From TrEMBL:
Gene3D superfamilies (UniProt xref): 3.30.1490.190, Winged helix-like DNA-binding domain superfamily/Winged helix DNA-binding domain
This protein's name: Fur-family ferric uptake regulator
Organism domain of life: Bacteria
Organism, as annotated: Sphingobium indicum (strain DSM 16413 / CCM 7287 / MTCC 6362 / UT26 / NBRC 101211 / UT26S) (Sphingobium japonicum)
InterPro entries: FUR (IPR002481), Fur_C (IPR043135), WH-like_DNA-bd_sf (IPR036388), WH_DNA-bd_sf (IPR036390)
GO molecular function, one term: transcription cis-regulatory region binding
Length: 145
């Protein structure tokens, strides 16, 4: 029994050691793959679990650092109302979220963003980010649910 405990501890230590040895670009690829395969917004903890199942252990702090890098590169967006992460979409000013199947789609709406910025400026606000998210049912769910 002690040998098994020692073997399990040793395996865990190896997995942690592997995680420290992974390069930033390897972490980027692992996290990006999990976000793309999920096909819905995923939390940092879900990403950590998914990566740890297919590769060596990844702690949430590593996931958060990797996500910050991917967001700054314009590859990932944070869905604020779900605290989840999703692949960035070109021309996505408005995020539509299905509350039934969790599908996410983005639509261009530069006029909406411009209106918000104009209203904010008129009110004396210096806007640093505009996030527009709407919840409802996607076309498929609206027909079938
Ligand atoms: Zn749906």
């Amino acid at each position: 029994m002690m040998m098994l405990d020692r073997a399990i501890r040793s395996h865990s230590a190896d997995r942690r050691l592997d995680a420290r040895r992974r390069s930033a670009s390897e972490n980027d690829a692992l996290v990006m793959t999990q976000i793309q395969q999920a096909n819905r917004p995923v939390s940092a903890y879900d990403i950590a679990d998914r990566v740890s199942q297919i590769s060596s252990f990844m702690v949430p702090n590593q996931v958060y650092r990797t996500l910050a890098r991917l967001i700054s590169q314009g590859r990932v967006v944070r869905i604020e109302s779900l605290s989840g992460y999703f692949p960035a979409q070109p021309q996505g000013d408005v995020c539509l979220i299905c509350t039934h199947c969790h599908a996410v789609s983005f639509r261009p709406a530069p006029e909406v963003v411009a209106t918000l910025r104009r209203l904010a400026k008129a009110g004396g606000y210096a806007v640093s980010a505009v996030v527009i998210e709407a919840h409802g049912q996607c076309a498929t769910c609206a027909r079938t649910v």
